[in-house]
Amino acid sequence: MISLIPRLFQRAPALDPESRAWIHAIFDWAGNEPHLGSMLRKAHLVLPTAEHFPGQADNRQAMAQLVFDRVLEHGGLGDSPFRLVHPGNLMDDPIPWDAMNTARPSRNPAEPQPGGVGIRYDPELVAHSQALIAHFAREIALRLLATAGEPPPALEGNEAHIAELLATQMGFGVMLANTAFQVRVNQCGACKGPSAERETALSRDDLAYALGLFCRRHAIPPSRARAHLNTPLRPALRHALRDLARREREAASGAA
Asked: What's the pTM?
């Protein structure tokens, strides 16, 4: 088994210039989209805390609904047609959300509403709150891509990657970065049993850079995000912030 401990003391590797430029391009694209820009300008840093995700539930379905509703609220989508589809309920294939002012359907999973945009989830993720939050944010963002008037840069084959960047712009970067690996959740600790994995597209370094860019563009103190990042990710965020500061200095000197 390869130990991860020595890596904790190594400097985070820099992303290649093409990756950094593409992340900036996706942020710029989303900010200029009429359906997305106004929402993203109001985004705030969402944290995996009881303040941002209050409440308790007696079962997994109720807990998933509670988290889902909070994700919509933090994303500025409380009146959207997105609805949570619990396991065991029938759901039509996901459809594009093509009306920003469409009324949100009933949340009763026993009464599927035509035109609602269903979001699936694996109940095993409920025990891993950050993975569940990241999953919801990514799946919502993936469907928001269908509302864009212009396609994002390099869309084909990169839909999941772009969705994670969009979810980061919506404020969920901390949870996405913390779970940017195959989060395997077993039913009972060390025993072998059914498990769930959050699907991921971007690397932790990619998402740390995107999180840093989000903080810079919204004038959010990076320390707020850093305090809730897993320890191995903090050097990656620090390196991203240094790179972003350098880019800003270079842009300022070039404009002078």
From this structure: 0.81
